[in-house]
Sequence to fold (221 residues):
Amino acid sequence: MTHETGYDGNDDHELTNLRRRAIAAVGRVVNGRHFEDWLTIGEYIETGRRWAMKKAETNNPKGPLYNQMWNVWLARNPQFTKIDKTVRNNLMRVMENLPAIRHFLDGEEEPRKGQLNHPTTVLRAWKAKEAGLKNEASKRKAEQAHEEALMADDGTPLGVPDVPARKPLDRQRLKAKKVAVSLYAALLKEHGRDGVRLIVDALAKMSDNDPREVEEREAAE
Fold:
């Protein structure tokens, strides 16, 4: 008999179970909940690890006696031997860092987030993100240390020469300086550099102030 669902079978109970499992699977696929299935598996495997550690009287899931007890647990739960050993180990790493990994996954966007649904894939992506964050933090710390090393005790940058503030020229002195520059340019054009030097020397003999010193002071100001 063919039911309304399109299933051609002889057992209504079998159909009901199949429908229930199919609906649950659709929900997981649509909502990207594959990873939650892995976490359920991981949660149960963790109970096996704790049992094996207790029997081996150890706090670490390693060692000959622990391995022996773990194999006993697997023999009693053969369904989990279908999962590759590397995948099981990665799943355990995920369970050990689950809060941080959930935080990482919450920050991912689709479609990337939907692709992270296997323990190995999730663990690899999380480790890569953590390594990137550590590298950025180390880089910022190094840059900050470099900047602090270039600071004096008062917080000012080192290696920057102190330039004394130039005194502002009053209008009269500024006007006189412009006249002197214009005069110098005119004499230079008319008599050349040697001629100007002779004129300056002659003026120096007639004055207590050497015009060249005045010129140098003016240039410095």
